[in-house]
């Protein structure tokens, strides 16, 4: 039998005619060293695998359906799966000796792409898409020419959107050839192909049709909605990346330009939420996730250097490649904190304008605002402090995130459109109503801080006209009465109240006489009194370090001698000495020898609390360099199991000797 023989032995046997055992492609696929020899560029192996017969067999294995275990034996199923995976690894290895022959064999490519025109399984789709992506990277032009000849290829891919590999393949068409492990911009043929098929609008059609479908398989619908939204978002991010190198793609497949498709998705989600009385929120959440990322991703930002620094570097634009949903720091926007080397504030501008997207979404503001007022039935939630009845819910929290992003990143026209439907006041209402929802508090607080620390007058007016001062003081007084001044018993939004109040105070100090535009004199006097009497003491408490500070060398000799105070830390040496002495007394009373028999006896381990305290000597201690650590007398009726210290070195450097004893002390 030649199965399991090394690859070179199989190749030798293949060259011999009339051998005892016929060597086939399956023989090589069964060889465990096959892929290793392939990566090692075994010349004889590459010659064999690049023949038309071998390539045809590999394509057949990669595209074949694996039968169900009920139809064939389980071992046969595992073997076919193994052959399919290894075949796809070989065909996608991007080794020139194989790929150069494969890409020019039209009959093999035809056989490979025919898989997409039939019902497709996830396992087969994964193997085939891996091969196609490798061909696009290494042989971009020939592969694109072949795909363009198949007029229904993109439509066929869209029919398999529930499978992640085929969905990813649509985005991969926007990748250009790979040279030196760097993916180049896409070719015009690829973008024209996607534009001709109107991919973005058709993806939105699939999303809307799935939402309106009467199918009872909610899990399958959710999976399809998730995949479609991820593909649209990936296209948007790819648009930004290409924009950084000054490459534009057709507007029909640019989500920032063709924003109506995004608005259709949001509208479909709102409709489904309304028809289900708030029970089906998946479509709206997926659509808003796309919008939030498109508006807030840091990929869509380039730093504009100062003229002085730009002259030194020679590059006026610096790309920011960190991608994150949360652009802001803990409080406010990180952009206000970033500076260049010449200590001037860093300025940013978008790579792709979001103005068209914001304009299209503005038609949904009023309906989304109404979602915040609708309280769908929610189960009570038990948190660490209390039971929350009628919690906020994930749907409204996602809408809050969308609105706060619009307030922070939107243009003045967008902020004014939000102000027309009183979004800021509604968000403040929720902030003060749900005092245990920390995510809600963070979203609202970061938006308010961003507005007050920037020069966005429209956003400042929108937030401040919501009676921020009166609400802060009223809620603070309410919490003070409920907790009797104990901040540990106050509501969960106490920290955010402090941040809001301190930010408003700084804004009013900076505004000068302009502060009277937002508040009357009585409100300002009440707020000044609140800041001096309540806010500043609370801020001092929050700044206080827990446990106090460590004494420094300049504090005097008395402080330098004191190492620790008010600690529950037990010195292990003292513990050992005390327990060893106690054990010795018990052993001496019972006439036991000092030798251990290596056995552990289970004894009654109950001990009065006062005896435990005396043994461990836990309490208020003042350790001085002159303090003696002599052991204290211990009760003789202890049931403690003692461990004597082994040979070692004490902290003072003195060598100690002893043997470990696991003998229990008998009463």
Describe this structure in words.
By secondary structure, the protein is mainly α. Helix content is 55%, strand content 3%. The chain has helices at residues 7-15, 25-29, 34-39, 43-49, 52-63, 74-91, 96-103, 106-113, 122-138, 140-149, 153-158, 164-172, 188-196, 199-212, 218-244, 260-275, 282-296, 307-313, 355-361, 365-373, 394-409, 412-420, 423-433, 438-453, 457-464, 468-483, 494-511, 521-543, 557-561, 572-590, 609-616, and strands at residues 178-179, 182-183, 302-304, 317-319, 347-349, 381-382, 387-388, 648-649, 655-656. It has a three-stranded antiparallel β-sheet, with no helix packed on it. Helix 5 packs across helix 6 (74-91) and helix 9 packs across helix 10 (140-149). The radius of gyration is 36 Å and the shape is elongated. The model is unreliable at 1-5, 306-343, 559-570, 593-605 and 615-667 (pLDDT under 50).
